[in-house]
Design a protein that fits this description.
There is one protein chain. The chain is of the alpha/beta class. The protein folds into two domains: about 190 residues, Rossmann fold (3-Layer(aba) Sandwich), CATH 3.40.50; about 90 residues, DNA polymerase, domain 1 (Orthogonal Bundle). About 40% of the residues lie in helices and about 15% in strands. It is built from 14 helices and seven strands. It has a seven-stranded mixed beta sheet with strand order 3-2-1-4-5-7-6, with helices on both faces. Helix 2 links the parallel strand 1 and strand 2.
Length: about 325
């Protein structure tokens, strides 16, 4: 097993977003290499508590080792969508803050046999849990319409039909089993002009497959529906996204929690009585500054949003 890299993205901004209290209870829903969790744990006093989750068994092993010096920290193997079940099991009703970093870890990208990267030839896998349906299963069993759907919805790939046709033709001869084979198919299916612009030609398809394999948007949707109710008044949620689909979901959910009144705009007065449940911590999404971009190129697409739960009005 390789070592999970732990270059945390937007570290200081996340700590500002969470407004850490030494005796607070915090959840890192995507502990990875424990980069953010280490900073949280260092900020906690003896009465503080950190619950660190990850569904990748390699991350759980690595994070457990790195956080072993902090008795306040506990690592649990779980997807962040299972946050409520984990808290219930631990007897924790409400927490002071929750952090999600939705990026694929450097370890996952840089370990060829995990099959996440289009830069290295490896088995076509992409399973964060190392269990269940793999990317190989998807490209070899999904029909034309299903392949097009995930590439369009999850990768915003405009050449989805051409790529899907190429996949179907290739798998009739033999199963597509390696990342290198898929990269070559994508490259040949995309017009030459398009290949020269917009980054690596396989980037969008690999993103779409990874999201489908790991149910990433379903997990995020479940988290956004449930996590807010587990915050104490004054508690905060901070989420780092790396692509527009996730960012849109987080932005819309946070906006709805901060909005309150749902009356039509032409009503002269509010009749629904709905009050805002939260406030935005940052007026707009926070992005990496020049210094961080220079030291960590993977922070380029990162966006941080955070909200604070308002005190309930009598």
């Amino acid at each position: 097993m390789g070592q999970f890299q732990h270059i945390p993205v937007l570290l200081e901004e996340c700590m500002e977003g969470l407004a850490l209290r030494p005796n607070g209870i915090y959840v890192d829903g995507t502990v990875g290499g424990a980069g953010h969790s280490l900073k949280i744990a260092e900020s906690l006093g003896p009465q503080g508590r950190l619950i660190a989750l990850d569904k990748d068994p390699d991350a759980v092993i690595t994070a457990s080792g790195r956080l072993s010096a902090f008795p306040q920290a506990q690592v649990v193997q779980s997807d962040f969508s299972g946050l409520c079940e984990v808290l219930d099991t631990l007897g924790i009703a409400l927490v002071d803050g929750i952090l999600l970093d939705l990026g694929v870890s450097s370890y996952q990208l840089d370990t060829p046999e995990r099959g996440f990267s289009y830069h290295q030839d490896a088995p076509l896998d992409m399973r964060m849990t190392k269990q269940g349906k793999s990317a190989q299963d998807i490209v070899n069993t999904y029909d034309f319409d299903s392949l097009c759907r995930i590439m369009r919805e999850y990768g915003e790939e405009k050449f989805a039909p051409a790529i899907a046709k190429a996949i179907l033709r290739a798998r009739e001869k033999e199963p597509i089993q390696r990342t290198g084979t898929l990269v070559d198919l994508i490259r040949e299916a995309i017009p030459a002009k398009a290949r020269r612009t917009g980054g690596h030609p396989a980037k969008r398809v690999f993103q779409a497959l990874r999201i489908e394999v790991n149910g990433e948007l379903e997990s995020l949707s479940q988290f956004l529906e449930r996590a807010f109710d587990r915050l104490k008044p004054g508690g905060r949620i901070a989420v780092i996204t790396f692509q527009s689909l996730e960012d849109r979901m987080v932005k819309q959910k946070f906006a709805a929690l901060c909005k309150g009144c749902t009356c039509p705009p032409d009503f002269p007065v509010c009749v629904c009585g709905n009050k805002p449940k939260a406030r935005l911590v940052f007026r707009k999404s926070v992005q990496a500054g020049p210094e961080e971009l220079e030291h960590n190129s993977r922070s380029k697409s990162a966006r941080l949003r955070a909200i604070e739960k308002l005190e309930e009005m009598a």
